[in-house]
Design brief:
Elements: H1 2-13, H2 16-57, H3 70-77, H4 83-107, E1 113-119, E2 124-131, E3 139-149, E4 163-171, E5 174-175, H5 185-205, H6 234-244
Antiparallel strand pairs: 1-2, 2-3, 3-4, 4-5
Helix pairs in contact: 2-5, 4-5
Length: 250
């Protein structure tokens, strides 16, 4: 039945040549879209290559005299801070450290700023250090609290809510993938300077690129909640277990 209707429709519109022409007309915009996707992917991969080259060029400066002793290192790896502890670290350690870096950059002629931004739905702040560049991508270093469920191996924890927070540094492209909670002010400043030097190296590598990777400044994203799954709270866990438990009938 369907084959017969298709054959009849093709005969009514003029046969196979008409169908071929319609296919070409419909496929032309899709082809243009695919070319645009290919160009965007090429530019993104080029930017990623230069970012990686800038990072590798500044690796020696990331391992300086600011390493902690083994007891402090062990304490960091066995501590899972709660909301209050994470906020206290951001306010007491991270904010003054970022402001010191911003002050020194301003003294060197840069227009560095530090902002404390409230995160919607999380009731916690994030800190953003920004340095604009007129002819290149701006530098941003953001400390963002990322909630996680408390792991089963967390035998040292100051949280009783079933979750803890990682203070992760974010660039314009997303998280750098590590936790800086427990860093001293000097360690945090070293991490900021390493990222800044890596960004400068990236700008140097892209100056003479025939086809610019990204000539426009990327927008500064300050709310990354959509990139992470909300950890389950104790009430959610209890309600789920209650719903899954069959009730006895008298």
């Amino acid at each position: 039945m369907a084959t017969g209707l298709l054959t009849l429709g093709m005969l009514l519109v003029g046969g196979v040549p008409t169908l071929q022409a319609a296919t070409l007309i419909i496929g032309l915009p899709v082809s243009l879209l695919l070319y645009l996707v290919m160009i965007s992917l090429y530019r993104a991969l080029g930017a990623e290559k230069h970012h990686r080259a800038g990072y590798l060029a500044t690796i020696p400066g990331r391992f300086g005299p600011t390493q902690t002793n083994w007891r402090q290192r062990l304490k960091r790896s066995t501590t899972f801070p709660g909301r209050a502890q994470a906020i206290n670290y951001l306010d007491a350690v991270a904010a003054p450290a970022l402001q010191d870096v911003a002050d020194e950059l301003c003294a060197a002629g840069a227009e560095a700023t530090v902002e404390r931004l409230d995160i919607d739905g999380l009731d916690m702040p994030s800190l953003v250090l920004s340095v604009p560049f007129a002819d290149g991508e701006n530098f941003t270093y953001q400390l963002y609290p990322v909630p996680h469920e408390l792991p089963t191996f967390a035998y040292r924890s100051v949280s009783e809510s079933g979750q803890y927070f990682r203070i992760e540094p974010f660039a314009a492209t997303g998280s750098r993938g590590y936790d800086v909670y427990g860093y001293t002010a000097d360690q945090l400043i070293t991490d900021v300077l390493s990222g800044y030097e890596s960004h400068l190296e990236y700008l140097r590598l892209t100056v003479d690129v025939p086809e610019p990777v990204f000539t426009e400044a990327l927008p500064v994203i300050t709310d990354w909640q959509g990139d992470f799954l909300e950890p389950k709270s104790d009430s959610d866990t209890n309600s789920t277990s209650d719903a899954s438990t069959p009730k006895e009938t008298p």
